[in-house]
Amino acid sequence: MKIIFHPAHSVGKADRMLYGHFLEHFHRQVYGGVYDPTSRFADEEGFRTDVLEALRRIKPPIIRWPGGCYVSAYDWKLGVGKERLPNFDKAWRVEESNEFGTDEFIKFCRKLDCEPYICTNAGTGTPEQMSDWVEYCNLENMGRFARERIANGSEKPHAVKFWSIGNENWGEHEIGSWSAEQWGSLVRESAKMMLRVDPTLELSAAALDDLDWNLNLLRTAGKYLDWISIHGYWDGSPDGYRHADYNTVMLRTGERISDKIDFVRAVLTACGLEKQIKIAFDEWNLRGWHHPNIIDIWEREPKRREDKKFYEENVIAARNCNDINATYTMADAVFSAAFLNTCLRNCDIVGMACFSPVVNTRGAIFTHKDGIVLRPQYFVFELYANLLKETVLDTWSECVPVLTGEDGGKAVTVDAVDVAITYGAGEYAAAVVNKDPEKEQTVQFSMLEGAAKEMRIHTLNGPSVDAYNDIGQTQVGITVSEWVPFEGSIRFAPHSVNVVELR
Ligand code: AHR
């Protein structure tokens, strides 16, 4: 294939917040993930230093917390102060110790030099509770909550700039699911109170690719918003623990991703808000999280309600399947790179994306008692966050090879090669994904102005489409070439993610 571009023709600036992450109180993300005072890797504040070190390598610019479904019944006041009383987590039906709360989350973000992004409880929560949280985090010293923060040991405000109102309150699965009309007015009143506390906030609100929901939200509360939040998971395993194979996953790298962005862009434009509000894709992952039966146990298995053994094995213990590292293969790396390339090509409207989640469950990093495992998707962030430039160039492609197949009974065709070209300070960094499971693909880079003289290629790959990393096994990683003369065309290995530096 041939790709044509010119440094003067760009799509926009890629906000570094496209390489963000998400941390939820679910399974082993917080306790046993980022925070584990009993671990031999724990620092003086209980954070795992091996996890912190791996995260510093991928420079997370922003981390969203504490949920996700968890937040929709979360009382933030239980998670601050000297005495932390445990409570029953109604979202995930386990006990929450509240040992990790707002102050611990802020410490975690400061250790990574990244922006904290707090999602508020719009399920059982109220506009007052949301704005009280802003008082606790951002007021210097006025009022009860700022004084409480000081008494809890944080003299200076936490200065949390990014806040999301609610999680997926559009869905019945969420505690506190609202109609489109109810949502518009709840977001408006919450935003008003939060901005009364701190007018400098950047506010997001939960949305999805649904016209009625988004129109109500934007017409009623759009004037208060800087972001609109959407989520995406493309391979869910809500019941039996099964996963789409590599070829099926590749069929989900095309319109299944871009359609979500195109839809919200169209609604923002129709409301005349596309210059004011950006898309925060603040939960995304190829793999949906495995937590079977958490809701439909009552519908599908009503006779099981009293069956404690069934509950333990099929609701709680089933979550440990998320820890099976063989699940996360080159399909995860190739999909994640294709997702980020789609966001880069839409960087004029997509300003944030948070990989869901950062540690354990389906995350990029897996922790165990003797260390961590870096899953294939981790290395996509190591390449993109460290090598891609700020400006995303507009491109024209010819003779693009395709992959075809059937997914969900429908015939699907996607590009077999996905390229995003970034530019900065006279140098290029091209993110090139070869989705083809077997064939090398050649890309001819046609620069309409000047020409690069040399190149260096960073390649993320493994021996097969199903290669994965695990304890004591490393099949997937990054290799880097020397700087070599650039002759215009480059061959890319099958099932690989590449960043080509051109100068
Ligand atoms: O499966 C995890 C859940 O996915 C998150 O808690 C929620 O935000 C999304 O539905």
How many helix segments?
12
Q: What low-confidence regions span 5 or more consecutive residues with pLDDT below 50?
A: none
CATH architecture of the largest domain: Alpha-Beta Barrel
Helical content (DSSP H or I, runs of 4+): 25-40%
Instruction: Give the domain tally.
Output: 2
CATH superfamily grouping of the largest domain = Glycosidases
* CATH topology category name of the largest domain: TIM Barrel
CATH class of the largest domain: Alpha Beta
The oligomerization state is single chain
Q: What's the shape?
A: globular
Notes on the structure:
The protein has 503 residues and is α/β, with parallel strands linked by helices. Helix content is 26%, strand content 28%. The protein has helices at 49-57, 102-112, 127-138, 143-151, 180-197, 211-221, 246-250, 255-270, 297-300, 308-316, 330-345, 376-387, and strands at residues 2-13, 20-22, 62-65, 87-89, 94-96, 115-120, 162-165, 202-205, 227-235, 278-287, 350-355, 365-368, 371-374, 391-398, 402-407, 410-415, 417-424, 427-434, 441-447, 454-461, 477-480, 484-485, 489-492, 496-502. Strand 17 and strand 18 form a beta hairpin. The radius of gyration is 23 Å and the shape is globular. The mean pLDDT is 96. Alpha-L-arabinofuranose is lined by residues 24, 67-69, 167-168, 231, 283, 288-289.
